[in-house]
Amino acid sequence: MTHIELISLLNKYKKVIDLAYKGEIPSGIDTALFEAEIFNKIGERVVLNEAYIQFVNTMLKRVEYGVIFGKYAEELQQLVTYKKRYLETSDKTYLNRIRKGIEDVFLKFKRRDSDISVLISRIVHENALSLEVVLDDAERILQQMQELSHASTQTYDIFSKEIVGLSKEIDNLIIDVKIDIQRYSDNLHKYIHRLNGFILRTKQRKEQNNKIAALAQKITADEATELEALLRSDHENLHHTFGNTKKHKIKTLPSSRDIEQNRFSVILRQIFTLQPHKAVTAPKTVYKKQVLEDKVVLNYHKLIDDIHREMPKDLFAFILSHEEIAKFDAPQTKRSEAFKAFLMTVSEHREHTKIDDGFGSHHIRRVAWI
Amino acid sequence: MDIASVFEILSQGKIISSNSKKYSEYTRHLMDEEIFDAFYEAASTLGYILHGEGGYFYLSKKGQMNKEEIESYITKHKDAILAISILRQLRPQLDRGSYIVYTDLIHEYKMQVKEDSSIANRLNMLVSGKGNVDLKSAFDALFDRLRKFDMIERVGDNDQDKYKVLDAIDYYIKMIELSEPNSRESK
Asked: What is this structure's pTM?
């Protein structure tokens, strides 16, 4: 069978294979799948090929912790043996094997680091399993990670003390690898810390869930007396329930026998104290009649035109006697309006005015128009 | 945002959570210590105590409650605890900030009710006012209660199925811890 034929076969029977991958072995599996060894028979039992499961898990990053935590001791022991052989025989084949061995151990460390990270994320975010199963898994993983942490230190020591000094190439490789192993070892400590925290929280959660279940059971059996006592005693500090309170209004109506009585109002008075109603009179507002007023306005432009034309020697006296000022009734108003016009004219037409030292007839400085 | 708007919400008997999207403006406002203190004073003169701890805010009432209020207050707390017990049985890891999906919970309930009928008793007790109802209506009522108790909030408008668990769930869980100080192994 070629690769492409295998892919086609997997595609053709994808639903059956998917069910089997999820743990449910369907009946009536096509013989082609047995021939391709996607499925195997162990006696009467049908199982999905373990190699296929591992391939899928790797591709989907669904690592199983049994796969991650391999044994390193044997490989390390092998390296020490190769070193011994090399020192005895000086055969460079052993040097190549040592180099390959170091690379293998390093690659395992690297892959394991990423696998553990995925595994921990998965277990921390596991929602479907019961807390007991999650806790059990987490505690087993933690134990294995602690063993691994010890193995990392051992590997580091063997590389540093046992293998070093055989060749420059291997020494350089060991230096590079040791830096990374140290990093992975630090990560491992972080993972252990994270998993420890998770286990602690999960244990607390488990205990909390037990309490919730116990109290809920009491509530359904109407035996939650401790809760009721707690709520009653500490209600001032607990959440109030105004939003849910229903207000019941009680309505009562007089019976027909009561209404028929002549002195019904007397009976009412016996029950209620009735206050006589005082009529309140609205305060009267006095309105003033609206009258039109003639507003006298000074035509300043006309005044300026006349000043230009007449060129008076005493500007104030001229303005005061001008017809525009004559419009105003009272002499005081005339004088005040004239003075305002005088000030305005002097300030706006400074270049046309000559201010004398002396004063005019109205005790105002004499100003001549020039 | 002002104290009056916050009071309007809290005086309806709501617990508002910091991780709620709907009330984020209100909680942000209350997180300002000066505003909190000012509100505390104002609420106090009106006969309420403002509480703000553990990421949620609520008002409690000073003085004695009348019989009706006490009854409603105890029933509400019991119902909330029953609702939490159902949630935690279906999702043992559920906590503030978790997400729950309506259809997933119904599916999980169907699986669990076969082995443990007590969950059905609790659900029935919680929605008993609705008479004999089918599973969907019972879950509608359960989610409705959880929303009214301010424990969950719908995520987005389009995704009608997904809800966020709010900080206020801790208020009830703390009460359970106080009421049940000694842990017991449940069956």
From this structure: 0.58
